[in-house]
Structure formats: structure tokens, C-alpha cells
Amino acid sequence: QVQLQESGPGLVKPSETLSLTCTVSRVSISSYYWSWIRQPPGKGLEWIGYIYYSGSANYNPSLKSRVTISLDTSKSQISLKLSSVTAADTAVYYCARSDSGLGNFDYWGQGTLVTVSS
Amino acid sequence: DIQMTQSPSSLSASVGDRVIITCRTRQSISTYLNWYQQKPGKAPKLLIYGASSLQSGVPSRFSGSGSGTDFTLTISSLQPEDFATYYCQQSYSTPNTFGQGTKLEI
Question: pLDDT by residue (tens digit) across A46-77?
């Protein structure tokens, strides 16, 4: 069974950079697209962006100026960096797998809550 | 961005009921529509992809239909474990977008 596990600080100060890692196990990171999706408390889902195993990435235009998604194939890890955070970036952050850049998300991590507060 | 509009936003139903949730878009997305179930504190779970294909392991009481701009998720006979929030998602064009969710309550 494919497993995705998000990790990173649960508290980030305003204006700083949020950094999260998703570790993938029981499946090769190759040949899939790996997305970050977030969900503010009590609200809906927002796709942040994806990276393909080749290294090509695509971001939501609403966040593009602040987002970087990268890949470490040797560690089977996908990283998310979101700069200049504000309280509006407080959310549960999920990593998820799809088999295309425009596809369905068939495996998800359990999610990690990141709170932006001083 | 393609906006997804789900209705209703919330729904009260009973075990054994047949429930229909609707998702609409302003532009055609063919059948690039997926449905997810999310329970409190858990990640979303893929139920239906390509508008009508049942994800492996999902009970057959779940079904999806539609194409173009109008889609439905039907639960034929509600079970206690089905009370959750349901989201539609379009995979027709980037950025991927989700509906606002439909909370299904007892």
C-alpha cells in the first residue's frame, strides 16, 4: 500500500517561509505526479502545485510567486516551500499522488497542520 | 480558473436513504470530474474518477454520472459510515479546482 507522510514545523511566524516534506514509501516516486494540497480549518481544498519525477513543476497561479516544490528522488521525498506566509496560510497541508498533471488524487498523506502565528 | 459549484452545501439524511449531490461548472470539462469523501480529521478519499468510474475498493452504492457542466454523485442506500463531507474536483485544466464541499449529516 502506497504511503505518504508529511512532516515539518507546526508553527511558522508571519513573513517567514513554511517548509514541509512528504516522504513516499512502498512505491517508486518515478512516473507519478506529486501534489501539495491545503485545507484551511473548516474550509475547502486548494491545490498548491505539483512536481513530476522529471523535476518539472506547475503551480497554482494564486500562489505561484511564493511557492517552490522540489523533489529528492534518492530519499523519495517531495518538499514544499511557501514564502512570506500570513495567517491566511494556516491550513492542513496534504501531499497527494496522481498519475498525470491533470488527474485525480488516488493516494494522500494524513496531512499536517501548519499554523502561522507570532 | 474553473469554478466548481456543489449543491446542496449541507444535507440531512437517514440510513437507507438515496442521496444525490450535484456539482456544476460554468464551462464544459467533458468527464474530467472526480469525487472525494472526507471524514473529520482525515485526508480525502477518492471515490469516483472520470465522472463515473468507481475507484478500486469503493462500495458499489456510490456512483457518478454526468458530462460537460453537470455532474452527480449518488449514494444508493446510505450507510452509517457514509456521513462525511464530499468534494468534487475538476481535472480538465490547471489549476485543479475543488467544489466547496457538501456535508452529509444524519
Answer: 999 999 988 899 999 999 999 999 999 999 99
pLDDT at B41: 96
Considering only the beta carbons, identify the residue of A60, A104, A111 that sits closest to B91: A104
State how far the Cα of A112 lies from the Cα of B36, in Å rounded to an integer: 19
CA B93/CA B44 separation, integer angstroms: 21
Nearest to A47 by CA among B85, B50, B98: B98
Chain B residue at shortest CA distance from A42 = B40
Query: What span, in angstroms and rounded, lies between the C-alpha atoms of B17 and A104?
Result: 28
pLDDT of B13 reads 96
How far is it, in rounded angstroms, from Cα B58 to Cα A15? 42
Q: What is the Cα–Cα distance from A66 to A85, expressed in whole angstroms?
A: 9
Q: Return the amino acid letter for A9.
A: P
* Cis before A9 (ω within 30): no
Contact criterion met (CB below 8 Å) for B76 and B11: no
Does residue A76 sit at the B interface (CB-CB below 8 Å)? Answer: no
Q: Which of A47, A94, A101 sits opposite B43 (nearest CB)?
A: A94
